[in-house]
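Could you help me review a protein record that somebody else here produced? What it holds is a sequence and that sequence's fold in token form. I need someone to confirm that the token line plausibly describes how this chain folds. Take the sequence as given and treat only the tokens as open to question. This is what I was given:
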Amino acid sequence: MSVNDELTFEQAYEQLEKIVEKLEAGELSLDESMALFEEGIKLERLCGERLDGAELRINELTGREGESAGVKPFEAAGS
């Protein structure tokens, strides 16, 4: 199994979930576990890139370039 840069976020995430399930089962050899772990790291990075791209696009669309799409502090009325 190799990571394909053309995978959608959903496809990559689904593959990553399957890898985690296999690793958690604990029934693989060390070599198999290491190969799956490496594949999982690649998928995790791909998912992160897809999320970063989505965040950037949202910021561009909302006119918030350079800002994080994270949670902003709540300001109570009258503060």
Notes: The chain has a mean pLDDT of 86. The first helix runs from residue 9 to 25. Residues 48 and 77 are 36 Å apart (CA to CA).
